[in-house]
Amino acid sequence: DTGVSQNPRHKITKRGQNVTFRCDPISEHNRLYWYRQTLGQGPEFLTYFQNEAQLEKSRLLSDRFSAERPKGSFSTLEIQRTEQGDSAMYLCASSFGESKETQYFGPGTRLLVL
Amino acid sequence: AQKVTQAQTEISVVEKEDVTLDCVYETRDTTYYLFWYKQPPSGELVFLIRRNSFDEQNEISGRYSWNFQKSTSSFNFTITASHVVDSAVYFCALETWDDKVIFGPGTSLSVIP
């Protein structure tokens, strides 16, 4: 059983460019979560999906951020017009069930905005 | 408000010493879940334990043990006979009614050979 995978693992971009990250959850996991982690901090919740429905979005998720999970399997997180403050590790997690089940994390995508 | 505090920012121990990582949480919910995750230098968060608020029994898994005390809102983690491979950042986390997981700031553990 493969774990959660994320691509790319690293991304360097210039300010103002758009970037897109992909997350493939553990197969049959119906819930998928996105978190952001900055240096020296714990992960912060951004948004989550149950199947293809986006159920919750954090206030951290500005208008420049959009997440999709069109077929209820993989998910993409897009950041438009990147800013230096977007530099962080973006973590994806998945879980199986309705609620309160353990979330299993991927390796993350480290974004650096120059 | 929901909050997780890990007062120890960094801890260093010598190999084979025992070490306890503290976690204090705040929530008004009566039903909640607590977690510990390990984040080694590679960056991937590794799940260690999940405990619901109705189960206050302490748990032991090999060299790891957890002490959940509802009266003090604490969920401490002890590593017995630490190894160099235990060096990592450890996060305590809280999940409440709205299914969002709130992480503490983490404790960086260094085990020196």
Question: Describe it for me?
Answer:
The complex is a heterodimer of chains A (114) and B (113). With 114 residues, chain A is mostly beta strands. Chain A has strands spanning 5-7, 10-13, 19-24, 31-37, 44-50, 53-57, 65-68, 75-79, 88-95, 104-105, 109-113. Helices cover 0% and strands 49% of the residues of chain A. In chain A, the strands form two sheets. In chain A, strands 2, 4, 5, 6, 9, 10 and 11 form a seven-stranded mixed β-sheet that branches. A four-stranded antiparallel β-sheet of chain A has the order 1-3-8-7, with no helix packed on it. The N and C termini of chain A lie far apart (37 Å). The model of chain A has no long low-confidence stretch (mean pLDDT 93). Chain B is an all-beta fold. In chain B, the strands form three sheets. In chain B, strands 2, 5, 6, 10, 11 and 12 form a six-stranded mixed β-sheet that branches. In chain B, strands 3-9-8-7 form a four-stranded antiparallel β-sheet, with no helix packed on it. Chain B has strands spanning 3-5, 10-14, 19-21, 24-26, 33-39, 46-52, 59-61, 64-69, 74-79, 88-95, 101-103, 107-112.
Tally of separate helices of chain A: 0
Strand content of chain A: over 45%
Helix content of chain B: under 10%
- Helical stretch tally of chain B: 0
Oligomer type? heterodimer
Distance between the termini of chain A: 37 Å
Mean pLDDT over the full residue set of chain A: 93
Q: Give the low-pLDDT segments of chain B.
A: none
What does the radius of gyration of chain B come to?
14 Å
State the total count of DSSP E strands of chain B: 12
Structural class of chain A, by secondary structure, is mainly beta
What is the terminal separation of chain B in angstroms?
Answer: 41 Å
Largest sheet of chain B: 6 strands, mixed
Question: What is the helix fraction of residues of chain A, given as a range?
Answer: under 10%
Mean pLDDT of chain B: 93
Largest sheet of chain A: 7 strands, mixed
Low-confidence stretches of chain A: none
Structural shape of chain A: globular
From the alpha-carbon coordinates, what is the Rg of chain A to the nearest angstrom?
Answer: 13 Å
